[in-house]
Amino acid sequence: MADLLTADAVREELSRLPDWSGDPTGIGRTAQLGSFPAAIAVVDRVATVAEELDHHPDIDIRWRTLTFRCVTHSAGGVTHRDIELAGRIDDIVRSAA
Amino acid sequence: MADLLTADAVREELSRLPDWSGDPTGIGRTAQLGSFPAAIAVVDRVATVAEELDHHPDIDIRWRTLTFRCVTHSAGGVTHRDIELAGRIDDIVRSAA
């Protein structure tokens, strides 16, 4: 079981993830892609990583704008698994932009 | 510009779409697939249809549960384009289940 991060730890991690915001109950970011197909391609790549990590973000698709939210439901809050997933999502969004 | 459906017309259309609910402000359904990859495969197929119809549903991904919401934003409510998209989404979900 992954350890819950404290509020201070979440704040510190978020300082290294400038596109993310949140607190110990969950962290999230949005990303606007150039088109709807480009957004779906990002969803597909994030899905592959999510399966690899066995950790699945909530994803909301609003045409070409995506919202991701990460929380470790089994732990009841944000853990290092969420921080790792957030970083991987950033890599995918960055390479798609 | 697609015509807005009246409340009565939406109700009648929804009587033929038993998995959908809503009103003239929007219609929605959820679908639980067998796995996260199966859910993403449905998203991909819905995305292809959405591009073909140039009409894009809101999609929320919560692990293997999907929520779709259809409304014609340019018309300010539900039109026949939403009913058509809802039917196409049903076909995809049915063939994936």
Automatic annotation (TrEMBL), chains A, B:
<protein>
    <recommendedName>
        <fullName>Putative pterin-4-alpha-carbinolamine dehydratase</fullName>
        <ecNumber>4.2.1.96</ecNumber>
    </recommendedName>
</protein>
<dbReference type="GO" id="GO:0008124">
    <property type="term" value="F:4-alpha-hydroxytetrahydrobiopterin dehydratase activity"/>
</dbReference>
<dbReference type="InterPro" id="IPR036428">
    <property type="entry name" value="PCD_sf"/>
</dbReference>
<dbReference type="Pfam" id="PF01329">
    <property type="entry name" value="Pterin_4a"/>
</dbReference>
<dbReference type="InterPro" id="IPR001533">
    <property type="entry name" value="Pterin_deHydtase"/>
</dbReference>
<keyword id="KW-0456">Lyase</keyword>
<comment type="similarity">
    <text>Belongs to the pterin-4-alpha-carbinolamine dehydratase family.</text>
</comment>
